[in-house]
Design goal:
Elements: H1 5-16, E1 20-24, H2 44-61, E2 67-70, H3 73-76, H4 79-95, E3 99-106, H5 110-120, E4 131-134, H6 140-149, E5 156-162, H7 169-172, E6 175-176, E7 193-194, H8 195-209, E8 218-224, H9 229-238, E9 242-246, H10 256-259, E10 264-266, E11 269-271, E12 273-277, H11 279-282, H12 292-315
Parallel strand pairs: 1-2, 1-12, 2-3, 3-4, 4-5, 5-8, 8-9, 9-12
Antiparallel strand pairs: 6-7, 10-11
Length: about 325
């Protein structure tokens, strides 16, 4: 099989029959009593409890999903021990056959961006992930080192385009115009587009250069929230080959049909990205317990429901 990230991801999604991505966001305040240790984030026992929790989650996931998405902030808040745990969890997930998307939302310029890319992408990266999330606010030159480090698509890049949070409107919806402005206000111009559409269009050339030879999908993807399904559908026209990372499903309120609105027909159902669920899988109803068996049943039931719901959505 191709080493290309998008080929590996979509091939596995097709085999599994669903696009679920499990977010590994170990909120300390939601940690079940079964795994609670220590008195604070700085307490070494707390990190040990978080580690036990995440390893147990990976045990429950097994090979049932294609990819997991650890959020680096929840490890950073545990200090150096948390970063050591992140390295441990990433390595364990990859040994397990899972792809790992590091949710770090990096965005910087020059040598700083290159250092971030070297930290997480490529065979020699000290904390190697298969893909990373990026913030594009500093411009295309801030993403160029990550594109270079992707090894022509061996690693995946997911750029924030239309995020799922309500405050996304504050900037992403602002009307913009092309450089040849003729003096008219933005809302009077035919070429006035919201900023998120401009960001998407600016990514299209690089996305076209990183298309996988097996599936035809690009390793340069976009973060597009399930909470904006109509806009996600429009963005598919702008980025026809980009995989979408779709947050907002489950605990954030979006249903499965909205989550996959931007997907297109493929050989094993509708495809075009991955749908992330974090709290809905990690902290479902019934999981706040100190009983092993009860906790395992709650996690398994949440995983089953998400897989079945999304699998049904892409089969329609």
């Amino acid at each position: 099989m191709s080493d290309h990230f998008a080929d590996r991801l979509i091939t596995r999604v097709r085999q599994l029959g669903h696009p679920l991505c499990v977010g590994l966001d170990p909120h300390l305040r939601h940690l079940p009593p079964l795994f609670q240790r220590g008195a604070s984030a700085a307490d070494p026992r707390t990190v040990a409890g978080v580690g036990d929790f995440l390893h147990a989650v990976l045990d429950r996931i097994g090979d049932r999903v294609a990819i997991v998405k650890p959020q680096i902030a929840f490890f950073e808040c545990l200090g150096w021990r948390g970063l050591r745990l992140l390295d441990e969890i990433v390595a364990r997930a990859r040994r397990q056959g899972l792809l790992v998307l590091l949710d770090a939302k990096r965005g910087d310029i020059g040598s700083t961006a290159a250092a971030y890319a070297a930290a997480y992408l490529g065979e020699d990266a000290p904390l190697r992930a298969d893909a990373i999330t990026l913030a594009p606010y500093l411009g295309l030159d801030s993403m160029a080192p990550f594109v270079d480090a992707s090894g022509a698509g061996i690693s995946g890049l997911f750029v924030l385009v239309r995020t799922s949070n309500p405050g996304a409107r504050d900037y992403q919806d602002l009307a913009t115009t092309s450089e040849d402005a003729d003096g008219r206000d933005a809302d009077e111009r035919d070429d006035a587009l919201p900023l998120y559409r401009r960001v998407a269009a600016s990514l299209a050339p690089a996305a076209a250069d990183l298309i996988g030879p097996t599936t035809g999908w690009s390793s340069l993807g976009a973060v597009v929230g399930a909470t904006w399904p109509g806009q996600a559908e429009a963005l598919r026209q702008v980025l026809p080959t980009s995989l979408f990372l779709i947050p907002g499903f489950g605990a954030q309120g979006a249903g499965a049909q909205d989550a996959v609105r931007s997907f297109v027909p493929g050989p094993a159902g509708r495809e075009g990205g991955i749908v992330s669920s974090s709290r809905g899988i990690l902290f479902p109803a019934g999981s706040a317990t100190d009983d092993d068996g009860t906790w395992e049943r709650a996690i398994d039931a949440a995983l089953d429901e998400a897989i079945d719901t999304l699998g049904s959505a892409i089969s329609r």
